[in-house]
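A common beginner's mistake is to predict each chain separately and then try to dock the pieces by hand. The better habit, illustrated here, is to supply every component at once so that their relative placement is modeled jointly.
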Amino acid sequence: YIVTIRVKPDHSGVVTDGVKHSMNPFCEIAVEEAVKLKEKKFIKEVVAVSCGPTQVTETIRTALAMGCDRGIHVEVSGKDYEAMGPLQIAKIFAALAKKEEASLVILGKQAIDDDCNQTGQMTAALLDWPQGTFASEVTIDGEKVKVVREIDGGLETIKISMPAVLTADLRLNTPRYATLPNIMKAKKKKIANMKPADLGVDMVSRVEVLRVDEPPTRLAGVKVETVDDLVAKLKANGTI
Amino acid sequence: MTELLQYAFPESQSFAVNMFKGQINPSQVFPFPSVMNEEQTQFLQELVPPVSKFFEEVNDPAKNDSLEKVEDSTMESLKEMGAFGLQVPQDLGGVGLTNTQYARLVEIVGQHDLGVGITLGAHQSIGFKGILLVGSPAQKEKYLPKLATGETLAAFCLTEPASGSDAASIKTLATLSPCGKHYILNGGKIWISNGGLAEIFTVFAKMPMMDEKTGQMKDKITAFIVERSFGGVTHGPPEKKMGIKASNTAEVYFENVPVPIENVLGEVGGGFKVAMAILNNGRFGMAAALSGTMKGVITQAVDHAANRVQFGSKIHTYGAIQEKLARMTMLQYVTESMAYMISGNMDSGSKDYHIEAAISKIFASEAAWEVTDECIQVMGGMGFMKGSGVERVMRDLRIFRIFEGTNDILRLFVALNGFQDAGKHLKSLQKALKNPLGNAGLLAGEITKRAKRTLCASWVVFNGQYGCIVMLFLLSIADEQFVLKRVADSAIDLYAMVVVLSRASRSLSQGHASAQHEKILCETWCIEAYDRIMKNVKDLKSSSTTQVFKNMKAISAAVVENGGIVAPHPLGF
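With all components supplied together, the output reads:
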């Protein structure tokens, strides 16, 4: 994921044109987990969903090549896409989960471009479904799901009822490599196309980005000889 | 040699074939071919990332090299990935790629691990290619599905201890059994890639056959699909090699192997043609793979040059390094352009690409060697160290100038193919020479005037000189390989010029951001290629060069007679 990030000249955001996009690594783990659950016959069908402009269909196809059965592309472009954030996506997911009568919604814990870590939690709240976030182990037990969660203090095990929302953490699994025959088979799988309006979702953002800047260049340090010098300098520049 | 020349295409669209006829036929070279439809392009775009990822993250070329085999887990993953049946049709279990799509993927393999590249290539580019090209429907159905998944591996068995370049002289014998249902195969093959791993062998053997014209028995070669399970097939230990160590190379022995008559591949007695068709068909893959290899080492050289400071400056600011990096870049650009032009022509249905394919093999293998050598030079001592990985690439590359037709033989092939219809074409040659720039009108696109003039000038001189050579040929002096080498080198340079002119023109007319850079690459290449052609042609005219050739013959005779150096030591002992 080595990409040189550049801020747009108008400071409204980051340049995304011409930058190679690929599936968020935590989402890859989520897809892998879903496909595994299907292979173990706990679930019947896996639907891959992505919201964004036309290019996201490539990412959906990767998910299909990993083993998802069908895809849904929710078309969002232009200004709506630039303003799109976790709340809007959560609304879309909640609407789709109801429409498709899903028993599980599995997402990556966060996207590595904005690191929001909100979409899964918001989706669960909008649906009023239980949530198992930061999952490093998922086991289905009848109508319940046992989730081992990665937390600051270590690991926490919870049991929640389905339907539920899960978010994948790093150690949940190792995503499979898409094989060429699977990519070929994926070409025959369907990707449905729809707009947020079709789901009754309003895309208006309650967040306005005022300005995006690069982090300030690191200034050179100053070497001091004694502790007294250090205290004097820190007082001088107002730190203490 | 005569059997190599059975390519009479009276109405050929091939640029190279027409080049030797004194005509510029631009149909296959301008514009630069763009042969994939939207679906094929999209499919290929989906295949590139997983294949790249695999070679970046999973395959370990250094490990494969030190183990002298491809790691078992890597082989398994490659099989699962479908890498063993890239050009097998989808309904027989393969990925069904076109030549252009195949080229793009082998480019990735070439960039990372040539040892794996040869394992894959020996299997599908030559090992079972014969079944794809000339196999009967029954043979395809029987063998391709398992070959596509890598359940069975294939090997191409032509070379024998006494028959390398002289492939027509092979001695492995196939005799019809008394019951008439089998051929009994006896003989031994050497240096067979995948020889120790393969289950399915494409074997070339001689058979005495009645020549219809003379009524006499003559040895003709037949190609067979031989299964190890037929019995009597054994192999030797893996050969210890300079490079491509991960690729298995072994001797294969056939002792009274019963081969069902249904397993004849192509026509009985038509084996030589099958062998040539297979080798021809796979050649573009080499140029594609090597363009990937060069891309990889150039990145390493650039990374070093952009960061290494000596004498107070980054070394890329020094002219000596700049020349190296520029030459490396041009060689990669030409090779890449040739690879995709040829694959594009093949995908468009061309059947007479054999001269271009030979040119691309010669060019790619020599360019890759030079580029990698210069990369080591740019990197200095670091380049020589195992850890950098470049010395492995260098060792891996050496064989590419030797196998699949040595570059020396292929040069003769290129030159002699041109001479085939020599006599007939002298007249059309004279016409073309009278109006050289008229021919230039056929060159479409935004080629600069200078480049056009350069191309035409080379053209005129090449063909003017060609006329003289043709006459020499008619006087039977064309056996002089010294002459033929220079003709071939000029032909290679001409084709290289045309190929980059086409590619750079396309970038200019498509308004690519890199178009100006490509224009400079193209112009620089053409200026130097022109000089080389002029020199070659001048040499062929000059009497001092004729004397030089004579001298070389004498020098060679003397050292051969003496079993080594003849001149006595300067110290007298």
